[in-house]
Q: What sequence folds into this?
């Protein structure tokens, strides 16, 4: 009996670990909350999230681009694509950033 319970627990753990942290709807709501005076915490969470995703693309984002610009890009993408907001936020933010700042092909000197 204990072996069966252990097996069941082992099957549940990977499924819960694979759950997404934030989807596009949550991120959009937090970015929108940042427009209100009482949404400072929500805006900080959303800004940190966008910044974290952007850190995965440090060589693709041109020097001088601000965190505010990256947040604006993510928000604009979410506003323009409401049909995709159920997707993981990491996918949506990465797509938004890569569309605005595509990485140069390997061997290219353009950054």
A:
């Amino acid at each position: 009996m204990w072996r069966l319970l252990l097996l069941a627990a082992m099957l549940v753990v990977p499924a819960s670990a694979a759950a997404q942290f934030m989807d596009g709807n949550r991120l959009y709501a937090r970015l929108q909350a940042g427009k209100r005076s009482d949404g400072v915490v929500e805006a900080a969470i959303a800004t940190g999230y966008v910044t974290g995703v952007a850190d995965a693309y440090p060589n693709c984002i041109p020097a001088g681009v601000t965190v505010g610009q990256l947040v604006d890009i993510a928000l604009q993408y979410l506003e323009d694509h409401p049909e995709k907001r159920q997707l993981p936020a990491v996918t949506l933010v990465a797509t938004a950033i890569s569309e605005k700042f595509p990485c140069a092909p390997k061997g290219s000197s353009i950054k």
Observations:
- The first helix runs from residue 2 to 17.
- The radius of gyration is 18 Å.
- Residues 22-100 form a domain with the 10k-s Protein, Hypothetical Protein A; Chain A fold (CATH 1.10.890).
- Confidence is low (pLDDT under 50) at residues 1-18.
